[in-house]
Write a structure and sequence with these properties.
This protein has 399 residues and is mainly alpha-helical. It is built from 17 helices and no strands.
């Protein structure tokens, strides 16, 4: 199929997936991303063979991943991620990294273990936060704790990618990372400077016109940070995450009344186009044949699913704030162990480098898909919370 035909097919899947999620959600709340990836697998080369790889589609998929990480960075409210909870979150992630690298090395050797172990420490914050928001739990104490632990599960692996998977020596990688941090700090300083009245006025007057100044500024910030990361030889995901953080500072500091409307438009662009392309292409490129051929890859799938709980979940459960009760800790463990976007990104880096076999990558991505399907649902059930698809009224802001 041509690139244009493949893109049309991908967008058709993007349109059909929410309908399937809505229909199935009456009985079982399956995350939308599962349908997007599953339908991508269906039309991919290992099943129907209707769609394949291509430069245009791959570029859009990379932009979709960048947008997903950008939106995750924007979601983090740093006034709620601080103090003892932040220290506990950082300690839990560092322990997870050490355990993950150790166990993955035992399973697959050091070269492959670096990729696998780093991926095991990630948290799909962009998947979890919307669930908490829809369930009315994001603005609670539990939501603040989840945001802190989840932020480290997003930011930590990105830093680890830069330090461990860049191909440079750790010392040189640290220097380059420091340069990026310094340049980012300058951008943050600019973002937090008071804006004159004209800036807020332009944002508000063009918000519902063809000008869309604020939306274009957000896209410019994302492009600048992606370009900066690439020029320094860093993973572009770091630039995307930083762009999300900077965008929150700019919008909430200079145009707080319009910030929500601006991000609604950016999210429409992301979740309406780019992010679905990323997930569908993930399905198209999924090596289903290698996974179903039996033997080691198929055996590794449940092993990796369990390792998400062991590597990421156990340190989170152990270091959770003491004011959380047993059920809260269990829900936090399950949410923090939910992973997918960074797993896809890290395994793609490993397969492109020729270090990680596509069969092991498929096993890890398959386990991550199961984590998105199972862990959040179990967490909501654990707290006696009905899944968002089943709610008929807004629940009180308590956990």
């Amino acid at each position: 199929m041509s690139q244009t035909g493949t893109l049309v097919l991908i967008m058709a899947i993007a349109a059909v997936a929410p309908l399937l999620a809505h229909a199935v959600g009456r009985w079982l709340p399956v995350p939308l991303v599962i349908f997007e990836i599953a339908l991508g697998i269906l039309v991919g080369p290992d099943v129907l063979g209707w769609a394949g790889k291509g430069e245009t589609v791959d570029t859009l998929a990379h932009l979709g991943l960048a947008m997903l990480i950008f939106l995750a960075g924007y979601e983090i409210e740093f006034d709620r991620v601080r103090g003892d909870t932040l220290r506990r979150s950082a300690a839990a992630w560092l322990i997870a990294l050490a355990v993950g690298l150790g166990l993955a090395t035992l399973i697959s050797g050091f070269d492959r273990g670096v990729y696998l172990g780093t991926a095991l420490t990630s948290t799909a914050l962009g998947t979890v936060l919307p669930l908490l928001r829809d369930a009315g739990r994001l603005r609670t104490r539990f939501g603040a704790v989840m945001m802190s632990f989840g932020a480290l599960g997003e930011f930590g692996p990105i830093i680890a990618i830069t330090l461990l998977l860049s191909g440079r020596s750790p010392g040189r990688s640290t220097i380059v990372l420091g340069v990026f941090a310094l340049l980012t700090a300058l951008v943050v300083w600019w973002a937090t400077r008071p804006r004159s009245a004209w800036f807020t006025r332009v944002v508000e007057t063009t918000l519902h016109t063809s000008g869309q100044f604020a939306v274009r500024l957000v896209v410019l910030l994302l492009a600048l940070m992606l370009g900066l990361a690439e020029e320094l030889g860093l993973d572009t995901l770091l630039g995307a995450f930083a762009a999300g953080v900077i965008t929150r500072l700019v919008l909430h500091g200079s145009a707080p009344r319009s910030a929500e409307w601006v991000m609604r438009k950016v999210e429409a662009m992301g979740f309406g186009f780019l992010v679905p392309v990323f997930y569908v292409v993930t399905g198209i490129e999924f090596d289903l044949a290698a996974l179903l051929s039996g033997g080691r890859p198929l055996l590794l799938l449940p092993v990796f699913l369990g390792l998400f709980l062991v590597v990421r979940g156990v340190p989170v459960h152990t270091l959770a704030p003491p004011d959380l009760d047993r059920d809260d800790r269990g829900a936090l463990t399950l949410f923090a162990s939910t992973a997918l976007p960074l797993v896809v990104a890290i395994t793609a880096i490993g397969t492109d480098a020729g270090t990680l076999p596509t069969s092991e990558a498929a096993a890890l991505v398959g386990a991550a898909m199961l984590s998105v399907l199972l862990f959040p649902l179990c967490a909501l059930r654990l707290r006696g919370t009905r899944p968002p698809q089943w709610q008929t009224s807004k629940e009180p802001e308590t956990w």
